[in-house]
Every structure is written in structure tokens, then in C-alpha cells.
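User: quick one
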Amino acid sequence: MTKPQNKEPVEYWRWKEYQRVISDKSWNNKDIITAGVDVGSVGSKAAILIDGEVYSWGITRTGSNSPESARKALDWAIKGTDLRLDDLKYVVGTGYGRVNVPMANKAITEIACHAKGANYIWGPKVRTVLDVGGQDIKAIHCDETGRVTSFLMNDKCAAGTGRGMEIFADLLQIPIEDIGEASMKIDEEPPPVSCTCVAFAKTEAVGLLRKGWSKEKVLAAYTSAMAVRMSNLVKRVGLEKEFVITGGQSKNIGIVSRVENVLNVKCLPSPEWKTGGLDPMIAGAIGAALFGKALYLKNQKK
Amino acid sequence: MTKTIGLDLGTQAIKVVVLNDNIVLSREKMFSGFDPSKAAKTVLEKALKTANLSISDIEHTTATGAGVQMASNIDSKISMMSADAKAGIHLFPKARTIIDVGAEEARAMKCDDNGMMVDFVVNERCAAGAGAFIEAMARALEVKMEDMGPLSLKAERASPINASCVIFGESDVVTLIHRQESKPEIARAVFDAMADRVSSMVHRLGVNPEVVLVGGVAKDVGFIASLKRKLDIDISIPEYPEFAGALGAALMATKRARRSKK
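Assistant: Done. Structure below.
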């Protein structure tokens, strides 16, 4: 074991904030430029669309102040474009902090936005969306237009959420972005931890480490328990193909592959967000901006 | 003269009660620590010493609790629910609802007019309805766990938290601290949230008086006050609520010892 150095404590849960502009797109004043701001419990995401096509986005951590987090996310999405806030014709707020998005013309629930965004990212064949957010998990069933037909939600419990994963990243001292890969570095899949409650699972994990289990094996046992929990939610809402996973944990290969195994279905692959593709984490923000465009057009007709 | 032992291996502490014809001779407890079997042995010896007895005087030992499989040299076992119900009826013969809130689990038992347990509900696998919740929130508030109860009684109003999960409860408490809510009000919010969870569990059984509260958390004045408010009923609490499981096991041991004598 490496000895801790007298440095700043490492925050293993801390994931990277970033922004991106699709550079081959341009805009003029006639375009309908809309934005969606998704203030989640852990991450705040903003997406800017030109005539319903994604132009730029920004992902930041949510602070203790929702309006500020919303502003920050939108600032990041605008950064590097020649847009100004005034150019945005319509802004829709969504997510846990949606009522606290000061620049929003309207707030829409994240469930509707995620289904709409998934429909944009993966196309009209998507019927089931598992959104794994920072503090809740949702299983959404939608039609070919991305309209929600039914949904189930697990909230008020950290088990299976991104927040729970952050806690395990900290406990096992593995950076959150590596946690998926790390959980796959095992010879044999261990039995899942018996505790779903994150507080108890932590205690159980410490016990397993003391028993001599490797960090990766403990992580695999936890990830596997969480995947079972998510899969049960999907089963209850009814799994219909195509199936996709959105939200922060769609980037966790340990979760994605185990959910696929439990449900015995392959989900549509996520775009290569690291190399320019759309980020599955911004599905909600994209959906919000699409609603923004529809609402803007409706208002124009009046 | 029937001398028996009840042993309760809880998730946090191990409790022992020594009885002579259902009269308590001694009671001892100890933290389970890393080696619950060893702790059980130590605390058992201590209880025997206090009672001025040796193990050869004991006719029957009954064990209960989440760690019951770690107990050695016992004669029989009893479920946690039955042990609680037995102790509750023994201490308060009119008890019809017995609630046990421990470190990691909460449960409620329903008894009929003959003192027989007829139904029960358990909250397990979730820390929000158990002592672990108070512990985590005390840590977030930077208050000693035992000070949480008295502190909460000083609250002038309740500031509700959406705390049905320990993990989210911690962030809620931090938010309240940032909002500069006073510590008593936050402590009260913690107990209210917990009592909410426990009372909704009890409501599934029906709240039939007399209601008895046992388990380690039954010593917390803050939780008692909140639960009374939520259930809107008076609650009886024994002098040593954390020994209820061990007492129930010991009472069962007496019954079994006498039966085998016949």
C-alpha cells in the first residue's frame, strides 16, 4: 500500500467538468436558437440547439445554489461560440433544480426531457430509457416520438445512484471515471453485496476488504448489486427494445454491461462522447431545448 | 430455582441478561467490535460474575439477534421478533404493539390479548429508520450522538428535511447548516424524519395501545418525543430498553428449562 503523502486530499469522486462546440455548425439571426438547462442534484448540464440541432453543451458540477449552477452550465455551453444570452429565443429548465433556473421561460420535468433527448440521440426506435442520475434512477417507456408513455422512479434512496458510486469511489480510492473499468478487472464475478443501502454497503465493503478481497472485487460486488436494482426497475416498467441508458452512469461500463447481463439485452451503444459525439449525460438538456423550440414556434403562431 | 441466560448479539452491541426464576440477577452489554464471538464470551463471563454465578449454575442459554450464528455454547435460539414480544409483554402485560429500534434495524410486533405475537414488520437493509441514521446525522452536525436528543428538545420549530436516506440526509443537513438553521432545529428535523419512517412502518400493523418502545434508540429522548408526536399516542419505555432482546431470550430459556425438567 502506498503511504498517504502530505498533499491535498484526493477527491476521488470528482469528475471533470467540460464544454464542447460542434464547430462545423453556424447560425444566423433567423435560426431558432434554444437552450435546455438540466440542473441535476450532482451535475448541471446545458445544451444549445440551432433549429433543433445540437450546437454546443456544457457540463458542470451542481453547487449549493441552483440558480448559480444553472447560469454556470449555460455559460459553459455558450463559451467558445459567438452567441450571447440574448440570442437564445427560448430556454427550458429541467432536472431536480428546474424551478430555480432564472433564465428559463418554462420548466419541464426531466422525465419528459430525457425521453425526448434519448429519441434525439438514438433515434425513434428507442422505447425504454434507463436514466441513472446523481440522486435517483428512472425507468422510462416512450413512443417513437420520444413521448413518455409510462415511467418508474426510485428516489429517496441512494442505492444505485451516481451519489452512491461517488461514495464508493472515495471509499476505495479509485477515481470516479475509472470505476467502471476497475469493476471489470476481476477473474470471476463475485456475489453481489447483500446490502442495498449505501450506508450498510459501505460497512459490508470494509468487511470484505478486511477479508482480503481486492478493491476491484469489492467494487464488482457493489456494482453488481446496483445493476440488479436498476434492472428490476426496468423490468417493472416493462422492457421493450430499443433500450438505452442515459445520465452520468451511462459512462460506467461496469454498470452498463451488468445491466445488459441481468436484463439479457444489449443497449444501443452510447455515442463516442470523448471524441466529439453527443454525451449521454446531456440527454435531458437536449430534450429541454427541443421542447424549447416547439414552445417557441407555438408562441409565434399566436 | 431456574437460572437462565439470554444473549442478544446485535449489530452494534452484545447484551446479556441473567435470570433466576424470571427475576433479573444481572445485565451487561459490550460493543460487538471485530470479533463478536469473543465479545459475547467476555460479556457473558462478566454478567455471571455480577450475578455471583458460574456457568455450571445455568440451566439453559437462549440466543437471539442479527449475529445469532456467532453464538457458541448455547442451548437454543429465538427470533428477534419473538424475543422482543416476550420481553414487551413481560414488562408491560397490556402491550399490544412493540416497537424495537436498534442500530441497524427497526421492527414492530403486534400481540394479541394472550400476549402472543400475531404479526410483525421489519425495516432492514435501509439505514434511514435505525440508529445508524442518528449517528450519521450527528457526525454531519458535529454533535455527539448522545447530545442529539437533548439538543432536539430545545428546537422551537421543525424544519423538515427530505431524509429518507442516510446519504441524502447528510447533504440535507449540510444545506440546513448553510442556511444557518440552528443545531436544535436540525436535530429535531433528523428525529422527525426518522420517526416518520418508523411510524409509517408501525401503521402497517395498526397502532394498538399499549405501545412499547425498546431497543438502543429507545433511550434517545429526541426520538421518543418525535415518535410520540407522529403516532399521537403515549409510549411506554422500560428502564433498560436495549436489553429487551436479551431479556426475551432469557425468559424463553426459563420456559424451555422448566419444560425439559417435567
